[in-house]
Amino acid sequence: MKIFSLGVDQLTVNEIKLAGYTVIPHSSLPDPVHTGPDMLMFTSEAVPVSALGELRINYPQATILYLYLQKGVRGYQSVHLLCESLGIFFVPPRSTSGAIIEKLRFILAEDGEERPNVIGFFGSGPGVGCTSTARLFAKRLAAAGQKVILLGLDLYDPGYDRKTAVSLDRLRPRLTGKMLQAIDFENLVKLDGYPYLPGNYDYLAAQDYREEEIEYLLAEAGKYADVLVADCGSIPESAAWYVGMQCSALRMLVTHPRHEQRLQPLMELAGHMDLHPQDFQWIINRSTAEELLSPKNLVQRFGCELLLELPYYPGYPENPPLGKRELQQLDDKIHALLVTLGLTPELRKKGVFG
Question: Is the CB of residue 172 less than 8 Å from the CB of residue 143?
Fold first, then answer.
């Protein structure tokens, strides 16, 4: 199938071509007679939303992929709905070239390449414990014998109290120039058996990061680790949050029963990236018996899976002293994660006759 494109930047076109697709760029709308049942890939800068209805009429047989480029957490839900009603495939803003290629494979019912071994951690709000939970998992993954790198990708909070020689903002020039080398990962902060890249200390530059930079960082770090743990923070208006959502093999949502009202818009936003409730594993952090809504009822309401419940310990807001039973439960989950990622064999389960 040919892909006729309009308004798509040359770098993205090149990446799609490298993935094995035939892309024919145009400077104006192609003749419907020439396109036939092939694919049309347009951006919102080339074709405004108001023209989508007429576009569908003029190209009745074509498969249409619409790349909506206007950034922002809100404002494109109605555009997505319009595309669905017109039979047009929708790609949300801040999608990387890799995500667009995954969408093409989905549309054409092709098997895609395996995703990298990235476990993404996302919080339902600042202070919910996303960073501390990511560190806990990184520590137990390292204790299980895996080579782990923890990347601080929260652009609004470095996640580390002390200023370090290596951090996300200090690596920024090397991300922009795509010049990362092995020594950049060897010099990371050493924590509990794994190297750690603190996040962004330059708060004023949080909005300047580009999706391509974060995608490049994940790809390069993946060469030096069995498992990448990515602390993507709790702010959806972040290039790293979007890329983490797109590139993670497993997505951990760290939340709290009191964040019920925050979770609904987050799940709606994930839906626009073709992610569904079953694509998330929930970790209920700092849970207490006094909560009006139990963790089990919370996850059932959204149709998600409860991976782990971490109780609240007064006086230990960051690193709770997990007991032996809780550590065993956590390590059981760690083993399941490693089996899912293909990094360890599945344990033989004892049945009735075992």
Answer: no
